[in-house]
Amino acid sequence: MIEQIINGRLYKTAPLQPVSEVVSKRISVSEFVASLSDAELRGILQAAKSDPAINIFIERLRFAGAVVDLDSVHTKRGLSALVSKGLINKGRSDELSRK
Hints:
Layout: E1 2-6, E2 9-13, E3 26-28, H1 29-34, H2 38-48, H3 52-63, E4 67-69, H4 73-84, H5 90-96
Antiparallel strand pairs: 1-2, 3-4
Helix pairs in contact: 2-3, 3-4
């Protein structure tokens, strides 16, 4: 508790609590795609032709506009789909999602 006397009156206030800054885990779509190797991207695009889960992830990236939210449930699901299909490994998924 902080006590201050202002104009002869005693004021008691609680100290300000630091506000934790929310760190945005967003990157541009082009930065996200550029972080994939040519082999990874080739495999993902090939898989998207026959695998609905991978195709949905690619389409979400296309519709995302300029930014990919790395905390988005859709991005996490997409990366999980890439791992489950053997297109990237878990470590690479973590690297892409900046964990």
